[in-house]
Amino acid sequence: MKNSKADALSQWHNPANAPAQSEPILPPSVVEPDTAWTSRQLPTGLLEPWPIPHRPWSHMAVDFITDFPSSSGFNMILVATNQFSKACQLVPLKGLPTAMDMAMTLFNQVFRTYGLPEDIVSDSGSQFTSLVLESILDSPGNQY
């Protein structure tokens, strides 16, 4: 038994038997770019590389891991990452902290052990950009 659909498709896709196309498949507005078109993206800026740390915990990154099932009342983790060795300090939290709670947690769990960093990278959440944290870190040579 002959497969007429397969024969028809093979004839169509065979370049020797394909009909000549005088018109493009796409309309001209798609083929030729519109000169009035403008990008909706903001112009890109120059990337600035992170400074190379000269000692452990001099440069760190902080962020939260959220939405864990509650375990002894804890459902979040504060992650403080050392940019020198990529080691991290994990601090369990019982919810999203206020700016004062965040500053005290960083001070008691990270800064007390490793010292004040010169630089902290975060996602610019209100807990990380507060005046409370700035005042704790406000010492000569520190930037945040």
From TrEMBL:
<feature type="domain" description="Integrase catalytic">
    <location>
        <begin position="52"/>
        <end position="144"/>
    </location>
</feature>
<protein>
    <recommendedName>
        <fullName>Integrase catalytic domain-containing protein</fullName>
    </recommendedName>
</protein>
<dbReference type="GO" id="GO:0015074">
    <property type="term" value="P:DNA integration"/>
</dbReference>
<feature type="region of interest" description="Disordered">
    <location>
        <begin position="1"/>
        <end position="26"/>
    </location>
</feature>
<dbReference type="InterPro" id="IPR050951">
    <property type="entry name" value="Retrovirus_Pol_polyprotein"/>
</dbReference>
<dbReference type="InterPro" id="IPR012337">
    <property type="entry name" value="RNaseH-like_sf"/>
</dbReference>
<dbReference type="GO" id="GO:0003676">
    <property type="term" value="F:nucleic acid binding"/>
</dbReference>
<dbReference type="InterPro" id="IPR036397">
    <property type="entry name" value="RNaseH_sf"/>
</dbReference>
<dbReference type="InterPro" id="IPR001584">
    <property type="entry name" value="Integrase_cat-core"/>
</dbReference>
